[in-house]
């Protein structure tokens, strides 16, 4: 972290993104008291992991005007995070918006709503997590808001949070705690890897189960 003002530099952010992208979301969630993360969004792009900086959007159900606004303002490495109320009657993004986002260097979409042209997200392996899909297109009338705190599938996301996604779901890591959570997550992953080795060798200690039951 920058020594003078405590603000992360772009190089430091890019390093955090690269390191978080290698971590499984369940590991990160365990280090955030198992209280954070999506539970019902589906990955429409395949198995590729995603990590980037949250650019948040709140829209009216079935209206994507402010998502277009966010895309126009997007920077490389952004993840477009859309609070759409979980409504899946109209798609909020599709192939053309995905292609434009990709051209801008956007790292992915997290949509608490529906998408369409699902096969193109798979073909381009463009990270996209959404509540559902439908052929029905959106309106462009507003209202909406950009770069505000949003709620996605029960998870609070603020602009600038780090967004990590994989086959298990999506989790938001607050920017101010990112370095601490990264350190904790790497330590937890190392501990799990050691447990895997003990299981393979037949030396894992399972006495904690009986101790826990006895305590109850």
Description:
The N terminus is likely disordered. A hairpin with a 2-residue loop joins strand 10 and strand 11. The strands form two sheets. Strands 1, 2, 3, 4, 5, 6, 7, 10 and 11 form a nine-stranded mixed β-sheet that branches. Strands 8-9 form a two-stranded antiparallel ribbon. The protein has seven helices and eleven strands. It is elongated, with a radius of gyration of 19 Å. It is an alpha/beta fold. The protein starts with 9 loop residues before the first helix and ends with a helix.
Please summarize what this structure is.
With 216 residues, the protein is α/β, with parallel strands linked by helices. Helix content is 35%, strand content 25%.
Structural class: alpha/beta
Order of helices and strands: HHEEHEEHEHEEEEEEHH
The averaged pLDDT comes out at 95
In whole angstroms, the N-to-C terminal distance is 44 Å
Q: Which stretches are low in confidence, meaning pLDDT under 50 for 5 or more residues running?
A: 1-5
* Most strands sheet: 9 strands, mixed
Query: How many beta-strand runs?
Result: 11
Question: What general outline do the C-alpha atoms trace?
Answer: elongated
Secondary structure: helix percent: 25-40%
- The rounded Rg comes to 19 Å
Tally of individual helices: 7
Strand content: 25-35%
Name the descriptors.
216 residues; elongated; 25% strand; disordered N terminus; 9-stranded mixed β-sheet; single chain; alpha/beta; 11 strands; two-stranded antiparallel ribbon
């Amino acid at each position: 972290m920058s020594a003078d003002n405590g603000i992360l530099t772009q190089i430091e952010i890019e390093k955090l993104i690269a390191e978080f992208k290698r971590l499984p979301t369940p590991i990160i969630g365990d280090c955030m008291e198992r209280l954070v993360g999506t539970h019902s969004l589906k990955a429409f792009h395949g198995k590729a992991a995603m990590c980037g900086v949250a650019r948040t959007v709140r829209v009216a159900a079935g209206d994507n005007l402010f998502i277009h606004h966010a895309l126009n303002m997007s920077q490389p490495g952004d993840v477009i995070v859309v609070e759409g109320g979980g409504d899946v009657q109209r798609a909020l993004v599709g192939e053309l918006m995905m292609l434009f986002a990709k051209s801008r260097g956007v790292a992915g979409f997290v949509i608490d709503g529906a998408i369409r042209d699902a096969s193109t997200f798979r073909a381009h392996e463009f990270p996209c997590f959404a509540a559902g899909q439908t052929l029905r297109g959106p309106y462009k009338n507003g209202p909406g808001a950009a770069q505000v705190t949003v709620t996605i599938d029960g998870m609070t996301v603020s602009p600038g949070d780090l967004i990590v996604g994989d086959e298990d779901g999506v989790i938001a890591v607050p920017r101010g705690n990112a370095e601490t959570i990264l350190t904790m997550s790497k330590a937890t992953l190392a501990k799990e890897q050691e447990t895997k080795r003990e299981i393979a060798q037949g030396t894992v200690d399972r006495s904690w189960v009986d101790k826990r039951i006895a305590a109850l």
